[in-house]
Amino acid sequence: MPQKEKVKNFLKGIRDWLKANKQATPEMVIYYLNPILRGWSNYYKHSVSKQVLSYVDHEIWKALWKWSLRRHPNKGKRWVANRYFKTINGRKWNFAATVKDRRGRWTTITLMYLPDITIQRHVKVKGTASPDDPELRDYWQQRQTRYGKTYWDKGSKLYKVAANQNWRCPVCGEHLFNGEALHTHHLLSIADGGTDAAENLIHLHVACHRYLHNKKTL
Predict the structure, then answer these.
(1) How confident is the model over 176-195, as a mean pLDDT?
(2) Pairing relation of β-strands 201-205 and 182-186?
(3) Which residues lie below 8 Å from residue 182, measured CB to CB, with a gap of 6+?
(4) pTM over 0.70
């Protein structure tokens, strides 16, 4: 379980940032907080922490509500709520912003909802099982895939991309989650008319992505 003191310090850091950035736009807040929330929740998702995630999510919502009210001291609460919070997929009070994507189209971005994180109980390695043992290759790949399925939200675009690749890097053929950093690559670049659709994306190891680009320049 996340220690109470660590949870308090985590929330304090977010509250302090919001107080120091009262003039930030809603999209700036979302772009800043989402990677922090994703990293923190992924770190603890192997623990029994569903209640903690719900608590942290609620405390962050309260901090954002106060931040929104402080920005508009002369406006009513209903006006503030309509400006900063939206109902999305049936869930009310999502902190959200409307922004233009890189093609100039308007789209809605939201702060991630921590209770949506799937708790994945940690499974201890069997005995003295070694990743270097060729007879245990299937065992380690199953562990890697089980971890990979919690890396992205199930049903999300990036999850589907990984599943379409059978959780393997198409360049080296190794499992995506072998400990190397990942990069999501456009098969047809945006500059050449490519899209962000799942069919135009592949996940690669960063080293494999670098190799792919170097090969194109030779």
Answers:
(1) 85
(2) antiparallel
(3) 176, 203, 204, 205, 206
(4) no
